[in-house]
Amino acid sequence: MINIKTVFINLLKIFYLILILFLAYQVIKVIIGGTWETENIIIAGMGVIIAGMFVIVGFLINQGIILGMVDERTRGLNERVKNIGDSLIKLGGDFKKHLQEFHNEK
To answer: Which candidate, 37, 62, 64, 84, has a CA 20 to 30 Å from the CA of 53?
Structure first.
């Protein structure tokens, strides 16, 4: 079975590697003496895209994970409260029965 999370992470790693290679090529090109006036626009755009992808999307993914954990923790809350309520009702009934037995013995 294909794990979507692993595939997505691998795609991001490949994209990141391609971006690093592209930027390294551009830096070497400038050092050697080439110009990169038109590439400034491309690099600035890529910076905005990367910032959006890794900061904003990462934050949203983290929030989704946290909300999923909260949902998972509270999903069985009604059953737990019901079980606690049933236990307290049984405890109260037992206590009442023992009190009646205690008063009947006197």
So the answer is: 37
Q: Tokens at residue 57, please?
A: 């999307």
- Within a domain: 25: yes
Name residue 12's amino acid.
L
Q: Would you state the structure tokens that stand for residue 2, as one six-digit string?
A: 């294909």
Domain count, the chain: 1
Render pLDDT for 70-106 as a digit per residue (tens, 0 to 9).
666 666 666 766 777 778 888 888 888 888 887 787 6
> Is 18 domain-assigned?
yes
Indicate whether 48 pLDDT > 80: no
